[in-house]
Amino acid sequence: MSAQREMKEKNPWPTPVTIIIIIVIGVIAIVALVTVAVLQNKSVPQKYKYGIVLDAGSSHTALYIYQWPAEKDNNTGRVEQTHSCKVKGKGISSYASEPWKAGESLKECMGEAENTVPKERAHETPLYLGATAGMRLLDIVNSSASKNVFQAVEKALQNSPFSYQGARILSGQEEGAFGWVTVNYLDDRLKQGLKTTGALDLGGASTQISFISDNFDGSESPINSVNFRLYGNDYNLYTHSFLCYGKDQVLKMVLANQTQSGATTVLDPCFHSGYNETKNYSVLYDSPCVSGRKPQEAPEKFDHIGKGNFQECQKAVKSVFNFTFCKHSRCSFNGVFQPPLQGPFGAFSAYYFVMNFLNLTDTSMPLETVKQKLSQYCGTSWDKIKRQHPTVNVKYLAEYCFSGTYILTLLTEGYDFTAETYSNIKFIKKIKGSDAGWTLGYMLNLTNMIPAEAPDSPPLPHAGYVSIVTLMTILLIGLLLFVALRIFWPRCSKKTQIV
Ligand SMILES: Nc1ccn([C@@H]2O[C@H](COP(=O)(O)OP(=O)(O)OP(=O)(O)O)[C@@H](O)[C@H]2O)c(=O)n1
């Protein structure tokens, strides 16, 4: 047979039935992938767990409610402040002579807590009360009065629907350390093992400084050392709390220094000219921070008259610091060891209230300019100040010149911030919606919400998972398009074959 050339067209692809099956499987696969991706990323209605902390400070009590995703309380969910309530009236230590009022005072804020925490969560919501320097001082002068106040407070809290976990006085060291934990937790520095921020807390009766220093391992002054292991990282924190160095007690100490002669008139450079109030010697000297120093021949009252002079005020404030003795290699003041300052600092509580009022929270402003502005403010007459701030509580208003001067003196002379390092301080009230202060750190610690070791990460991060699903979907669509082209435009896929 002679060689015959037979031109024969042959389609190399599967039959239409096979192709339809492939398309159907492909479509099902895409639908399944998209459904899974959508379901994975769908925002399910979030359920929360709650925790409540009462900060019983020297000047006032505040209630904070925290929440975190219920399914993530195995240390991975973010805890955030969802509500806060300022208790009306003074701090619980001021109810020493009528303790039942301390319990009564909490009722309004406890009511707000009941309205905030869902009823079904209340019984499992831990409730803590921590008292700070006001109660520390009361405990020193009258421990039975302090016990009575706690009893009254406990009674009020035990009657709440929450899971009451107890009320106690925090040590100054705890107050400093938990403030540091709060700031660094909220900044996400702990989980990521980043360099930490120091914490500066100024209250009414005490002040705290806490930071990590490469030059501090706790050996020189063990009482200033707190060790943590958090998310797999070790921290050796330097912390110190100065009792009596909160701004209300320092004001008493400065005034005590000015009234040692038992005078009936005191010309005070830290108060505005035109300020004139009659005050009681016994009220001024009622605190253990100045007790024993009341002049023997003191009259009942004295006229507290403002002079409005920043430089003189600085001198008067400096007189409450002792810089002359130090048995360590270096000290801040009053013989307290302090390693060299290191890193950025967050300054909160009264640091923020005062500097914010004075419009001096911008620390990029040269320190000299800050002093000039404060000097100008202190030199303004009391009448003008009152006219300029008609809505501000007059008690606070009268003290801002003194408070600003004390803050600058404490930071620069006390802790040794310089013109260069002053800009390392950031005056803060809140971080990502939660107040800076010891309460959050305290709750995180008591509820074991910060693990010592880093939690295991999932085999695939969320972003990786979404990328893989997207890639596979694109590939499948491409494959289906390719197959469809082959079917509907067969010529594109036909090749002339020579058999
Ligand atoms: N707008 C405001 C609010 C408060 N203050 C002052 O800030 C201090 C209160 O700070 P805070 O952190 O609330 O202190 P306490 O917790 O009351 O005090 P401590 O921690 O020492 O017990 C008080 O001196 C108060 O007069 C202020 O100057 N301006």
Automatic annotation (TrEMBL):
The gene is ENTPD1. The chain crosses the membrane at residues 17-39, 464-489. It comes from the Eukaryota. The active site is at E175 (proton acceptor). Its EC number is 3.6.1.5. The keyword Hydrolase applies. This is Ectonucleoside triphosphate diphosphohydrolase 1. Homodimer; disulfide-linked. It is a multi-pass membrane protein. It catalyses: ATP + H2O = ADP + phosphate + H(+); UTP + H2O = UDP + phosphate + H(+); ITP + H2O = IDP + phosphate + H(+); ITP + 2 H2O = IMP + 2 phosphate + 2 H(+). Gene3D superfamilies: 3.30.420.40, Exopolyphosphatase. Domain 2.
